[in-house]
Each structure stands twice: as C-alpha cells, then as structure tokens.
Amino acid sequence: MLKYFNSILIILLLALIGGCSGNKATSQNNLYYDVGERQGIERLVDAFIQRIGQDETILPYFAKSSVSHFRAGFIEHFCDVVGGPCQYQGDTMKDIHTGMSINEASFNRIVELLILAMEDVDISYPVQNRILARLALLRSEVIHI
Amino acid sequence: MIPTLSTAKGKILATPGVAQVEGAGGGGLVPWAQLAGYASEDEIALSAFCTQATVSDFKLNSCGAQVNLYDRVEVSFAQQNFDVDPLSLTLSQNIIGLKLRLYGDLIYSSWPQLSLGLQHKSIADNDIAYALGAKEDSGTDVYLAASKLHLGLLAGYNVLWNTSIRYTKANEMGLLGFGGPTESGALQLEASVAVLLNKHIAIGTEYRQKPDNLGLKESDWRDVFIAWFPNKHINLTLAYVDLGTIAAVPEQTGWYLSLSGSY
C-alpha cells in the first residue's frame, strides 16, 4: 500500500522536475518577464511599500528613509536581481543596512511582507520562490551589520 | 513596568516542521535539525503536541511539549502509550529530549543546518520487554541531523530534506526495552523529503531504519505525509504509515494524525 503511495509521490516529483526542465527556456533569465517586466516590478514595489507602511515591526527601520528614494532604488535593484535590463548603481546592500542591526526575526518579517506583496499583485507561488531564492543570497549583506 | 510577552514568530511559516513522535521537532518519525517552534536568535518558543498512530494491531499515543531557547537549544518531553491489542495491554515510556543547533540556518546558510540531539527514554513497566529478551529498561539515543530547504528547487517549489544518523539500543523506539540477545547499540539512518505545495501545505515521505535486537523481525519505518500550517500557532499532520512487523506481528500499516500548537 505504502509503495503505491510512494510511487505516486515519486511520479509527482518527477512531474515537477519535468515541468522544471520544460520551462527552462523561460525560467533562468526570464524571471524578469514572469514578474511582469518593469510595470510588474513597479506594482510589486508599491504593494511592498504599502505592506511595510502597515507593519509596526518593520516601519521603524524606515524612519529616516525617503519613500521615493527607496522606491526608485528597490525597483532598479529588484529589476537587476531578477535578470532584467537594469543595472543597479545605487548604494550597496551593505552600505544601506550598516548600523541598522537587523536581526533574524526582522529579516524574516521583511521576507514575509514581500511574500504578502507578491500575493497582492498575483505573482504565482513558484515565481515567488524563485525570486526569494535570488534575494536570499543577499541576506549576509543585510543582517547583523 | 509590566513585561510584555510576545509570541515567537521569527521564522518563516512551516519551516520548523512538525512534532516528532518522540517529542523532538522534526518530521513525524525522524528528528530534524530544526528546533521546534518559531523562535529565532532572541526568542523563546513553547510548543505542545499530541499524536496518534493506529495500525492493524497496535495503537500509539504520544503527547508532549518542547521549549526552544533562542533557536539554539530545544528541550522536549514526550509520553508514549502503546496499546497492544493482541495482549490487551498498554506499554508506556517517557522520553526527555535535548537538541543543540551546531551550525547554520535551514534556508540561508550555504551548508545544511546541523544539530546534535539526544533522547533519554525509560519504560514504565519492564515485564514485557524483559520477557522478550531486552537487556535494559532505559536507554539514550544520540543523533546528528542535517536539514536544508532549497527555495524554488523543483519548478519553483521549495524542497526540504533532512538526514539523521542515530545511535540507539531501543527496540521499537524503546517501547520494547533496550538491547537484546542478538545485538546491542548500532547506528541507524533516517531521512525525510518534503515539498511545499504552497506556504501552508507540505507533502513528503520519511524513512527510518531500525535495529532488530530482539530477533522479532523489527522493521524499518516509512510514511507519506501531508502537513497543514494555517498559521504559526497550529499544525495538523496526517500520514499513512508502514511500520512493518512489530513484535513478530506482520503488516502493521495505518494512519497517523498529529496536532501541535506553538506560542
């Protein structure tokens, strides 16, 4: 009986892998297109800013920031990270976050707000995860500095 | 000043896993490297669970609790009651667990998260265990667990795996005592794989190797599970388990249901 269930699970996993390789042409550099290009990124960043504005844990970290400066910088940086035709030339992640002493819980809270924002603008779960996989690499330049 | 008590929520939903049948944070059968509850580096999490597994001729009830201190140390307790239908009796044992996170973060570190744990078990009544040939009525398992969550690995879906290696003398987890005529302590391999279908639901499978110290054809354990995380306070897990042969009674398959709460 369990072997039967295991087989179903393996088939499911294979189907997922199959789906993965089938999408390869559009999955690597075209994360930018999956987010909806420039317009999609702008909508996402606006939703993200909304979410931050409503969050009492995270909002204080932005006490000294200008919303328009953050918006422009985040759009450019995000576009770069998802492989879009942009080259982020603003301050490095390290420079921006130095002195903010962001702990693990706050970092994860920001990740959750970004996930909520991605849901707000109907970015699919698999695309959300691929975006997070890229952003996760930047964690060491953001946290505990 | 009144101290404020806030809930531990510094981890991403579902990433701590569920309650393991021996009380540790983990999968259902296998202890994982993650610590129970959502505590991050400066938080404390309290969790409690109850699990029931019903197979053809046996029923296991396990309830317990875990404290997670700063995502560094997990202290757990579980009480197991094991109904042996053919003999109309119940075997019980208590398990005190300790787990130390040695390295890493499930999601963000380049190498898997690594934890060292132990489970000290003692059975309430040793008559059955000794009659079957067990040497002791208490024992301590020691395990090393490695876990990693890969974001978007399978067509955008997150994949989590855990492998544990455990030194144990326990017969059927300890319910039938420790050691026996054919063997004593040995290393056993355990593994789990899960895929998150969305941020609330994970499906997966587990495998747990077990010794056969009593010569009763004790089997390795397997399951397939679905776990639901509606929020960071509640988890419900349903599994189909194949426990093989227990005390020479073959074909023990059935259902496993577990509810846990976290604060």
Characterization of the model:
The complex is a heterodimer of chains A (about 140) and B (about 260). Chain A has 8 helices and no strands. By secondary structure, chain A is mainly alpha-helical. The N and C termini of chain A lie far apart (about 55 Å). About 5% of the residues of chain A have low confidence. The mean pLDDT of chain B is about 95. Chain B has 1 helix and 14 strands; from the N terminus they run E-E-E-E-E-E-E-H-E-E-E-E-E-E-E. Chain B has about 260 residues and is mainly beta. The interface between A and B is medium-sized, with 32 and 34 residues.
SS element count, helices of chain A = 8
Radius of gyration of chain A: 18 Å
Spatial order of strands in the largest sheet of chain B: 3-4-5-6-7-8-9-10-11-12-13-14
Give the N-to-C terminal Cα separation of chain B: 23 Å
Question: Any idea what the CATH architecture of chain B is?
Answer: Beta Barrel
How is the main sheet of chain B built? 12 strands, antiparallel, barrel
Based on CA atoms alone, the radius of gyration of chain B comes out at: 18 Å
Helix percent of chain A reads 55-70%
Q: Strand portion of chain B, in percent?
A: over 45%
Helix content of chain B: under 10%
Largest sheet: number of strands, sense, barrel closure of chain A: none
Average pLDDT rating of chain B: 96
Overall residue-averaged pLDDT value of chain A: 88
Number of strands of chain A: 0
Overall geometry of chain B comes to: globular
The string of secondary-structure elements of chain A, in order, is HHHHHHHH
**Largest two-chain interface:** A-B, 32 and 34 residues
Question: Termini distance of chain A?
Answer: 53 Å
Structural class by SSE content of chain A = mainly alpha
| SSE string of chain B | EEEEEEEHEEEEEEE
The poorly predicted ranges of chain A are 18-27
